[in-house]
Amino acid sequence: xSPLERHYRRLMRLLPADDRxxxxxxxxxxxxxxxxxxxxxxxxxxxxxxxxxxxxxxVHIGSLLLAAVLIxxxxxxxxxxxxxxxxxxxxxxxxxxxxxxxxxxxxxxRLAAAIAWVLGARAVSLTCYASLVTGSAAAFGLAVVRIDLxxxxxxxxxxxxxxxxxxxRPILLATCPLAGALWWLTEVWGRHGVYYPEIDPRVTWSLAxxxxxxxxxxxxxRGMLTRATAAVIGGLAPxxxxxxxxxxxxxxxxxxxxxxxxxxxxxALRRRSTAVPLGASRSPRGTTE
Amino acid sequence: MDSLSxxxxxxxxxxxDSPRHGYGLVTEVAAMSxxxxxxxxxxxxxxxxxxxxxxxxxxxxxxxENGRLRRYYRLTDAGAAAVExxxxxxxxxxxxxxxxxxxxxxxxxxxxxxFTG
Lengths: 289, 117
Prior knowledge:
heterodimer; A: mainly alpha; 11 helices; B: alpha+beta; 56% helix
């Protein structure tokens, strides 16, 4: 390997892994051709690689943040609906059934939009939110849908700029904490809702260790191990961890489970839909549209 | 159809007569623009991805030369139509601009303005 190639390969580690895997060798070939005869990258070409990396990562980060916003709001409204149905939140209304139905339908639409976005169906996500905003604005006025309107604008911008749907691992590693932070900011933290069941810690530790070992043995690809690990963390972590980490807000852990499972399912389905035969070229943007 | 940037137009035009790889595209675009447009590898990389997403170009074949991967791209029918449309649009604009410049020369009383078109 020439010194120039070695330098460029190091520089190209700044690019997102997806792009490097799909077209890294092609870019490297271009860089070596254009800087032929040099021992180090030229400022022009090297600077271009850095700028490209920043641009690609910014798009990925933007897409992740948007996924986190969608997950946070959709799960937040879903829990609000559960609160109303279970009576955890007192509802004062002359027509409580209408309120429950309205919250239920709008929560389902928001969840559908979030799941569609995670799965890469951007147009479906945009259509869901557009329908939600239009219907809610017509029924209750624009003031009621101002947050949904902001989300709709963000979705429209992302679709226009062709932001890619995040892969499974970024969703699991980034959107769950981000969604948790957004939950905190939107003051939904600590609501009653789906409770994590009480399980003997020895049982959960044993199950977690078994699943972790099983996942490690079965995983042939990094993606499978990630999904197996995520399933263990999301579904079978010991019962002591949520109270230690979240204190009295243990209920949030259940939402973490839901979001993790959404990410796992999204990643598995997206991998299946974007799988290409060996030797065929593929775009790094594995979206389904 | 969305309009093309100058870079995109030159890349598509460079592919009009035959498939080319990245380095070939950079040198061809420089030649077509009399060295005014010199593409960086990263710029071309991003441009090819955008153009492929719009269906205007597609990968033709991969070759390995001196241990370097060279991916050849070819113009699609949609890409050829886009180049044709853009060429016609620019031709109309150039003709309109020339007419106005000729009128300006006449108004200013210059008899020699150097335009032959």
